[in-house]
Amino acid sequence: RKQNCISTSTTESEYVAAGSTTKDIIWHRWLFTNLRYKPSQAMHLLSDNQSTIRLVHNPEFHYRTKHIDVIYHFICEHQHLDEINIQYVNTTAQLTDLLTKTLPFDCFYLLCNSISLLPMPSFEPAH
After folding, report:
1. Is the model's pLDDT at 22 over the cut of 70?
2. Whole-prediction pTM value?
């Protein structure tokens, strides 16, 4: 969804998005716990921005990121508490790109196929 703040870098934009997603993950963990299913491990948060991942793992990186609102830094706390686990995913395997950007046909086809949006090819029996 559209962010409600203005980002000055790709890292900041991805960090804000990761913070928003962390809120959703925490809510889902709460829901699962109330349904008597306690997740046994951290939920994975995938990002294709390595600077964002480094910022989550090392919040002391303040020189270039001191302008990021404090509200988004809680992602580091939840990473430390093992409630989330932010991991790198290659851009070519980032499924959300289907919804957020224009892709070359081969990349579009590969991503659609990986979430089964495309029909499986039909095979005729051999005679």
Report:
1. yes
2. 0.69
